[in-house]
Amino acid sequence: MSAYAAADPEALLLGRLEGVPAASVLAIRHGDDFGFIGLYITRADLRGRGYGRRMWRAAVARLEGRLFGLDAVPEQQEAYMRLGLRPFWWNVQLSGIPQPARITLTSVELAAATALPLDVVAAYDRQYFPVARNAFLAEWINMPGVQSLAALHEGRIVGFGTSRPSRGSCSRVGPLYADSSEIASVLLRSLATMAPNRAVAIDAPESNPLAKATMEQLGLKPRGRTVRMYNGTPPTVRLSGIYGTTSLEAG
After folding, report:
1. Which of 179, 227, 228, 169 shows the shortest CA–CA distance to 201?
2. If phi over 0 gives left and psi between -120 and 50 gives alpha, with beta otherwise, what is residue 176?
3. 172, 202 contact by CB (below 8 A)
4. pLDDT tens, 104-129?
5. What is the 3-state secondary structure (H, E, C) of the chain?
6. Is 81 helix (H, G, I), strand (E, B) or coil?
7. Are 25 and 10 in contact (CB under 8 A)?
8. Is the dihedral of CA 198, 209, 238, 85 positive or negative?
9. What 3-state class would DSSP assign to 196?
10. 170-178 and 242-244 as β-strands: parallel, antiparallel, unpaired?
11. Chain segment 204-232, per-residue pLDDT in tens
């Protein structure tokens, strides 16, 4: 949550019932005109009483006037469509222990993203995300347990990825951006070796046809999917280089 707070300190909305947390939603403002909704949760014993709808209205009000998106589980797609959002592509969650890389990119050097100037990393990220998010990235790549790598070609960034601890024996990778599928493969495999014997999980968007295929070539298996939805026309970004979304809560 620290990275979300760095981007937007008031993004997390919490509903209380008799002083006890009952529901939540993350309505994060990115830049001046974009937003994303996540962590839309109602306590199990309180579902069906309208508390979730109240949280939704609060989130939409907070993002009024902005294009915003979310990643929905399949069974909720129709509900979000009734609320005015439209589906645009599927994200496929894949997981497993990546197989050894079968390619060697002698012209590409890997470096810790934290060793590079933040503005350089943020400029590369901006190709794939609708707005600049320097404060978010500064926190995201420096969170405890996070590994973050940049792929460099002649001093220029051609790939960027992070891996963060998750529950059990799994690490979550995201974002994963690359100028080619080969670079994406090398980055994912390198991130995996930094946490030996742990599976990785990644949400690969089908807006990039190579993303899922690249992960499957590394031995990862599909485990589920979500649908990316927006309340308007999707933002213009370099979809062909997105191999893994940042997270299902922040886009």
Report:
1. 169
2. beta
3. yes
4. 676 899 999 999 999 999 999 999 99
5. CHHHHHHCCCCEEEEEECCEEEEEEEEEEECCCEEEEEEEEECHHHCCCCHHHHHHHHHHHHCCCCEEEEEECHHHHHHHHHCCCEEEEEEEEEEECCCCCCCCCCCCEEEEHHHCCHHHHHHHHHCCCCCCCHHHHHHHCCCCCCEEEEEEECCEEEEEEEEEECCCCEEEEEEEEECCHHHHHHHHHHHHHCCCCCEEEEEEECCCHHHHHHHHHCCCEEEEEEEEEECCCCCCCCHHHEEECCCCCCC
6. helix
7. no
8. negative
9. coil
10. antiparallel
11. 999 999 999 999 999 999 999 999 999 99
Q: Is 30 helix (H, G, I), strand (E, B) or coil?
A: strand
In sequence order, the β-bridge partners of residue 96 are 200
Query: Can you tell me which residue has the tokens 């026309």?
Result: 233
